[in-house]
Amino acid sequence: MTKLLLALPALVLLAACNSNSSNQAAPSSGAQITGAGSTFVYPVLSAWAADYQKQSGRGINYQSIGSGGGISQVEAGTVDFGATDQPLASDELAKNNLAQFPVVIGGIVAVVNIPGLNAGQLKLTGPVLADIFAGKVKTWNDPVITKLNPGLALPGANIAVVHRSDGSGTTFNFTHYLSQVSPAWKSGAGEGKTVNWPGGVGGKGNEGVATYVKQIPNSIGYVEYAYVVQNHMIFAQLQNAAGAFVSPSAATFSNAAQTADWKNARDFNLVMTDAAGPNAYPITATTFILMPKQPKDKAKSDATLAFFKYALEHGQDQANKLDYVPLPSALVQQIESYIGANIK
Amino acid sequence: MNATLARESEVAPSPLQKSGAGADKLFQLITAGAAWLVLVLLVGIALSMAWGGRLAFQTFGWHFITGKDWDVGASKFGALVPIYGTLVTSAIALIIAVPVSIGIALFLTDIAPRWSRAPIAIAIELLAAIPSIIYGMWGLFLFAPFMATHIEPWLSEHLGNKPVIGALFSGPPIGIGMLTAGIVLGIMVLPFIASVAREVFNAVPAPLRESAVALGSTRWEVLRNVTLPYTRSAVIGAIFLGLGRALGETMAVTFVLGNAHDLSASLLMPSNSIAAAIANEFTEADTDLYRSSLIALGFLLFVVTFIVLTIAKLMLLRMNRQYGRTS
Fold it and tell me: Cβ–Cβ of A167/B70 closer than 8 Å?
């Protein structure tokens, strides 16, 4: 009860702030900001939206329909922003008069189900991972795997590969990484939101892949980092470009983001896989926001930008809580100057 | 039979009811409109699917049906794997569901003690009310591991090396694949067939059955020679109602089929079905050809269902001609 009484003045203060800020955004304050796209970013985006609504009174309606859908919706002008896990090239952005910037970082993790194995014990390199998904390395005790894992008891069982059955930015980032580290993968299945998998089982969504990996003994799959943390899955360490074996974690993701070459990436068209940092996790991924450069509704575009400014500057706690990684501050500054220069 | 009688009485109103003629006419129009609406909708949906899929049909021609490659990156689409997966899982479902549900229906009408009939019948109808996603989750979390640890190793060990059927049961036991999907589907369609079969078995006139029993028939003979011939068309109708559900089932199949565009003779291997492929891939189908191919898949599901139902009708006609009209 005393707590409640103490909290009352604070609430009144908050309410006062609220009315202030909503007065500022008066012209079309009733209208919701609408967005669509990536499912990967949905949990953190909706957490930010809830916080932002408390603060500014403006609601955000985000439909997680998938990156492809987000791109086509923002190109058609039916939403205020789109979100995609696969960045668009500068010429495609120019064609549709769109601006693009990253908002949050996550990672894609190779998870396994090998009886008796604990998280982080198994070590894999990129090319070996590619050969496993290509069906070239068929058993867990194959010499290329045992050579990387001396002293680890690996079964002679067949490896069951689990991949996504739906098109996904997760798959794009994963196969983009495999294409970079394995020429054989690049000329075979290649990269994309859906690829022609050489074999294996397809699970729908991250939860589908996570469940299949948990159900099928001796399987391997790939899921977003949040699923690994929440489901206590057994992940594999991966060898990064600097030669070190790293586990997925906020620290290794953010090392990848810091060492990625954002400065020279036009329109932030950069996929962070295989980043150069000594401690960088090799399959680090970002979600990109797409917005029209010359919006039809200036007030709504400004409100959308205000939301992302809030998210980039004050959204770190929420991002960390949901197992994403906030962007490094240098990158945030670069984004803000980009927005100022590009979105009118 | 009942339906035709009813229709005849509508079309020819009695001259005694002159006063109600206007209302009768109106009623006829409304019912006719309702009936035609279904047909118009059906044709409309089929046409719009065919129109949406025209790009895929134009690009690939017959290869869209006979091609087994589904390569999004190379924009090459062939629907053979989903068609095959749909037909095989539905066939497994019927092989399981038909004998079991007819057994259930027979038990409930003839054999079960009277007090137990209602509870069992209600339980079966409740089975039909379970949403398909629940079946999918049950299949994935409980049934697939059971298949992987108990059933599939046995199958591949004992049947996998037999000459002809061996190919059907080879491969690693991962628990997810056409056999598991078929069994889950079988459980799903079972209540549809069982409850209709129970109704029609109950409708067999008691004197017919009693006469057969009086002539010394066993239960099996009564079923074979009286009950089944008498209810044949209704039972076959029920089976095809179940088949229709199995062909189009999406969620449960998506969970346990494995969603892999691989053509494999083995029932233990993952495959894909038409409905599952559409549900999986539609959200991220970002090129016109990809989207069109998925819509064309939907059209093919239409065609497959239509062909199957036509075969059913023809079968029924032939049977009726052979045995004379029975219902």
Answer: no
